[in-house]
Amino acid sequence: MADAAPRRVSLLATSGLTRRYAGLVAVDGVDLTVPEGGVHALIGPNGAGKTTLFNLVSGLVAPSSGNIRFAGADITRLAADRRARLGMARTFQNIRVFGAMTLLENALTGLHPRLTSSLVGIVARLPAFRREERHAVARAREALALVGLASRAEERAAALSYGDQRRLEIARAMAGAPRLLLLDEPAAGMNPAETVALSALIRTIVGTGTTVLLVEHDMHFVMNLSDSVTVLNFGRRIFSGPPAEARADPGVIEAYLGTKVAARLAGR
Q1: pTM of this prediction?
Q2: 257 vs 46, residue with greater confidence
C-alpha cells in the first residue's frame, strides 16, 4: 500500500479571530489556515472583512478576541515590525511607493525591519554597518531582478507605469526574503497583459519558497492561480477549500450573486 501524501505544515493560523468597531463586527470568529507553500486566496463580496483580516494578520489592527499563530509562534500581540522580522511582508491595495526615491532606494526600505546596526555604527560607518549595507543593497537588487526591474534600479519610482509600480511594491516586500507575502488586491487597475504577467510573477515567488496569501476581486485571476481559497461574507468564513469546489458551493454563489440569482441558477 502506497504511503499517504505528506500533510502540508501550517504557516499561518487564526482561531476565533474577531474585530469589532462599536456595533459593527468586521471580522467574526474567523478560523483561517494557510499551509506553507503555494498560493492561498482570501475572497468575498465588498464589505466581507477581507482587508480587516489582512490588517489583523499583519499587525496594523489589534483583534478584539481570538489569536494568530505564525510559524508556530503566537504573534497575536506583536507589533507589525516584529512580525516583519519574523518573516511576514505585505503590499497594500493603494500603491505606496516613494516617487521621489529610486527603485533601489524603495526596495531598500523593505529591509529596514531586519537591519541591526546602531545609530553610532551608521553615523561612523563602522565595518559592521558597511557589511550590512552591502548585503542590503545586494538583496534589494535581487528583489528588483525578481520582478523584472533590475535595469531600472537608479530611476525614480514616479517614472514607472502603474503596473511597474505594483511590481516595485512586491520587490520591496520581497527584499527581506519573507516566509509569507500578503498581497492586497495586486491585480487592481491592471490591464489583461499585466495581470497575466503578475500571475507568472507570483508563481515565481512561490518557487523561491515564499508562501503567498492574497486578497483579490478578479475571480478569473484567483481561480487560475490559487491552490486554495477562503471565502468571507459579513465577516464570517463560509468556505475554505480548493478553487474548483468554491465555484460550485451554494453558499459562495449566494454570497456573490444574491439569494434570488443563486436560487435561479440552482433551478429552485
Answers
A1: 0.85
A2: 46
